[in-house]
Model the fold of this input.
Amino acid sequence: MKNFTLLSLVAVSMLLTACGEKTEKAVEESSAVVKEAVKEDTLSALDEAKKALSEAAEATKVLAAEVVEDAKIEAAKMAVVAEEKTAELKASAQESITEAGEALKEQAETVTAAASEAIASISAPAAYEKCKGCHGADGKTVALGKSAVIAGQDKAALITSLHEYREGMKNVAGMGGLMKAQVVSMSDEDFESIAEYLSAIK
Ligand code: HEC
Done:
């Protein structure tokens, strides 16, 4: 539209020129109009460019703010993940330590049991030898799943029990006959040494 206006003005001015000297003033006027129009065009183009630039600057600002915000969110997420990983590692480390401790404890218990058994068999009197199969080297086994534990019992009570079995007077779990067979050929001295040994076991 503006181009068209400019062209028309130029055409008019050319026409006027063609009309000779008289038209000189008219030419001057029209060229002034053309100049003004060009100036206005340039100014408005400048305005547009300025506006576009400031819009672009604004958009860039908004974009930059968004990027910063996104980065913040990502950083926060990563911090959470790192924290979780740390907690997991801590938990699994604790678990390993607990497991190792548990294993050590078990080993210590096995060693202790083996040691007490070894000590028991060293100090056991010869008469106790045939009792081990059922009552255990340390007297802590429930014989045939029936008897009371004989280790750590009162010495006098043990001697009484053995006397009663020898005389066929004791039968707690229906196996008094079996026990009689074990002790029938034993002497009071054998009972004494066995009872001494068993009562001393903790
Ligand atoms: C074949 C397995 C066996 C053997 C070997 C054996 N016992 Fe027993 N003993 C038993 C059983 C079973 C009983 C439970 C008897 C009953 O029913 O009263 C028992 C009970 C006892 C009791 C009584 C426990 C209580 O407080 O009621 C004593 C003490 C005892 N035995 C000592 C011995 C001695 C000492 C020997 C070795 C000379 C011996 N036993 C050998 C199986 C055995």
Remarks:
- Residues 130-131, 133-135, 143-144, 146-148, 150, 158, 161-162, 170-176, 178-179, 182-183, 194 surround heme C (CB under 6 Å).
- The chain has a mean pLDDT of 89.
- Residues 121 and 137 are 6 Å apart (CA to CA).
